[in-house]
Amino acid sequence: MIIASDLDRTLIYSNRAIDEFGRPADTMLKPVESRDGRWISFMTNSSFIALEALFRQFLFVPVTTRTIEQYRRIRIFQEELLPRYAITSNGANILLNGKQMEEWSESISQKIKNEAATTEEITALFQKEGCHFDGIKRPVEDLFFYFILNNPLPVGDKQMLSTLLAPFGWNVSLQGRKLYFIPKVINKGDALEFVCRHSGEIAYAGSGDSMLDLDFLNHCRYCFIPNHSELVHDPYIETPPGMSVTKNHGVLAGEEILNRYLLL
Fold first, then answer.
1. Taking every pair of C-alpha atoms in the chain, what is the biggest distance, in angstroms?
2. Phi and psi (nearest 5°) for 63?
3. What are the structural domain ranges in the chain?
4. Model pTM greater than 0.85?
5. Which of 1, 3, 161, 218 is least enclosed by beta carbons within 10 angstroms?
6. H or E segment at 207?
7. How many CB atoms lie within 10 A of CB 60?
């Protein structure tokens, strides 16, 4: 059986996210991601112990919007715990034993050509509509892009963008300061469905914090979402019944989710 989980702001937390949500007193943190010789993301020690137990009992599949390169910065999945499958780039890529599954990536590239507007067309649309984003733009593997915002984006503005882009086959998601624009054909749900078929396993349980996670959470029998998440606080997002919201927030929400998996 598969346990599928988003990573950032669900199971692992950057220094910025820890500052945002707070670090509980006496909570020991385990560093899990490094960049340029310094640790930049963490989970609690108890979370890591629970994750080790999950690896022994289930087929654990990381599901992330990170690129392949960004995913590989997470040291625990390169050195200590080695997932058989990992879904990256919001579902555009699937890794099998650490290697990219070209069959899947090529099928996604074809779908983008047939079913979604190009990045250039979306950029032209923003210019036409006078949309300006106060932040730094980052491309993702020539597939989609996001902005690291300098100031918070009102929920109403995000909904306006969603309405604007829907006819062009693109989604919008706000995760902390990152505002993502992604073609709808690139989604975690289709990728997880492919992993289920390829592995012969079922999606037993899952967890995530953003609108981009809904596609794959809908495939899971049991779902957990952190109470600090976009799925909880955006009134325009309709979450299916049966999704369980954590009592804790921040790093302790990640710990709670992992421990609740072990009780299933």
1. 53
2. -130, 115
3. 2-108+187-262, 114-183
4. yes
5. 1
6. strand 203-207
7. 21
